[in-house]
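Lab channel / #folding
Pinned by the channel admin:
"Please post every new chain as: sequence first, then the structure tokens as a reply. Keep commentary short and put observations after the output so the thread stays searchable."

First post following the new format, from NK:
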Amino acid sequence: MTASQAIRSNTIVMLNNDTTPLEASNLTELAAEAIRHGMTWTVFRPEHGVFLAEGNGHVLRRVPQASLIFEYIPDPCSRPKIPDSLYVRGTAVDKLFFGILQGQRSLNLKEYRIGTTADVYNTMHLFDPTGTATKKIRDNRHPSFAPKCLFGFSDIIPLALPTLRETLCNSTVIRLPVPAEYTTGLLTHKEGFVLFSHRLDEFIRSSQYTESPRLPVPPMVLQVQHMYRCIQQDYPEWEDEVLANSQINNRSPDFLYACESAWRGCTDYFHGLISENGEYFYRDLMAAHLKNAVNWWHQAWNRMREGTARDNYGLRDYIAEGMHLYWDYLELVVEEMRERGWMDVRGETIREAWVVMIFRGFCWWRSHWMMEGQEMCEAPSRLPSQYYAEGIWTKNGDGEDDFVVVEKGKASPGL
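Reply from TO:
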């Protein structure tokens, strides 16, 4: 491979001479690959033909005649790490680099953009045209809280995305790009897991199922209780988020299989509900949940300040109180579903479906990993969603694709 070799149909950039190729068939893929190799896009403006990514001993930049040059810069002190294997691969994963969620098609979910504040507001407006939920997110966005104003809304990530791990090769790589400025929430934290489990037990023991006239407990609610307990008993990392987050790409294959098996069982349940009730049942259930979920942080902290938070199971914490509030919102979710036209669906079916959906979200999170904490807030890798498109190439003066590969140690033209 020579320094001036132009690749027309596919770009292959060799790192460290002949090892670890970076491959891309279009500019979108190349953008994602650069991030996988530890670079940060400091400039990415395709409309102006201006690009610059650098980091981890590499530089990717545009030179005259609209070419892209990928240059390996040797570091005399250390060998750059090549972290491409740390991310799951696939088109849906590449979209996360651009703040785009490719919703699960079998549940009739579309593509949702959440990478910027404007994207979040627009997506929330799709779920709640009244603007009430969007206003709550906006009101929460103040210096002491932003970007955690996405608490509640961030549930869209595990509820909308399909499972993304490469299961055919039984890979334990589960790291995903961060698609929004804040992604964690009640479905990631230990307090959320523990409180959900206890509230589920209380829900099953509630008077409507134990006193005359006794109603049968919805079967999938009992199944969720059983699946939760089985995973909890066998795998401490199920509830222990610290332990789980210490196992980024080396979680037990058996644990991943248990989580994904439960996730698939829940997904099959929703396939049946959609077949029986209508194609947009899950979408509307998710929307009804998100509309109420955005309220939990503010209300939980108010309860903590007022001394009215519930002190249950040794977890007196605003996150634990948040999961209490999720259960409190359940009747509001039923009402919201009625307003969305699901008048013929029994209230018990909606409650059962909500329980399954939340448990399914737990399973998704324990099968994947995204950067958390302050590192997540400062993660620079996300690109504007409007730049995602399959088949983007930078054109040269002749209107043909023109990418130039520069080998290690070769000089390169300036910008």
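NK: Strands lie at 11-15, 19-24, 40-45, 50-55, 58-63, 67-72, 100-102, 111-113, 404-405.
TO: also worth noting, The first helix runs from residue 27 to 36.
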